[in-house]
């Protein structure tokens, strides 16, 4: 099996490219367009954003000439332009998911409800879908994967996103015969459960990022969602609700992940965890019961055992997404997907005291944050998945800061598409 770089070069030599459709031209989307524009054998031929100038600017920033960017929502105009070597900017996500010339669609919206619709429409149009939308994946990913499998297309998370980077280490260790003890990621900033768009405004402005996105990092929601995706791909579970949030450096990781009875900090094996002090890296804690393997690991300066750490000190987010695009196209393989179904859940927690009748907002907002639980525990307590939270949800009782929010605590004013998919998933897969 040729390397992806050689496969792409060979494809271009044949006068062909993988035609990519992108939905969402924010920070992640812009980076991906620029990265792909410099690659062989691949091109983003159509980009959709609710503000069409964002799509135009994504191309302009990547060096595409203005005269080669066609703004349209008309499928026939778009298809003709793509065949002429031009690219399309549009406000229509359905144009991206249905355009015949598009081979693989990437969702970079970050909005769970929108991502669920994009994935559904893409699969229905018999195209591969790459999700840079982990929030949608942990909510309805098992259903979408089953639908994709039945349709003969690939449903996948993205390389470069932390779950995909963790999965890379897991696959190496598991295929090599190691026992995998734990999988995890570093957290870039101290956990601040009260973080909101106002409190992070200065940091967001400095980084040129969305305040809601930064808030979702600081309040831990993003970390919980990412490790839920890893859990659903591998079957690993949090050692405790919300995980421990350990602190240490890379060299300390093997000892930290020994059992408490052996001087470590955890109770179980096959767990997901986050650690302060190793960001922006991801890791896998591994072990072996083979004497010769342990001797070799020590010879290779991998530590003194019994645990060792595989550590990847970077993840390039959307800049690595093209690898998942190519892997789906050439090999019909997912980088990461919920192969184990719904084994963990990111549930909803009140960020502050909430009054009866108050509407919730969204991930990274002012009202709620997420915490990872075993799915069976979340189901037993009837807890609300974080990916279902939007402004159409209001609480029907007063809820104290730090309390879990259950389905019985809320009322919907309008049912979104992701709610419909979640009901279907709950009825058919669980």
From TrEMBL:
Molecular-function annotations in GO: NADP binding; oxidoreductase activity
InterPro entries from the UniProt entry: Asp/hSer_DH_NAD-bd (IPR005106), DRL_cat (IPR048423), NAD(P)-bd_dom_sf (IPR036291), SAF (IPR013974)
Coiled-coil parts of chain: none
Ranges for domain SAF: 345-411
Protein name from the UniProt record: NAD(P)-dependent oxidoreductase
Species the sequence originates in: Alkalicoccobacillus porphyridii
CDD domains: SAF_DH_OX_like (cd11616)
Lineage, broadest ranks: Bacteria, Bacillati, Bacillota, Bacilli, Bacillales
Superkingdom of the source species: Bacteria
Transmembrane segments: none
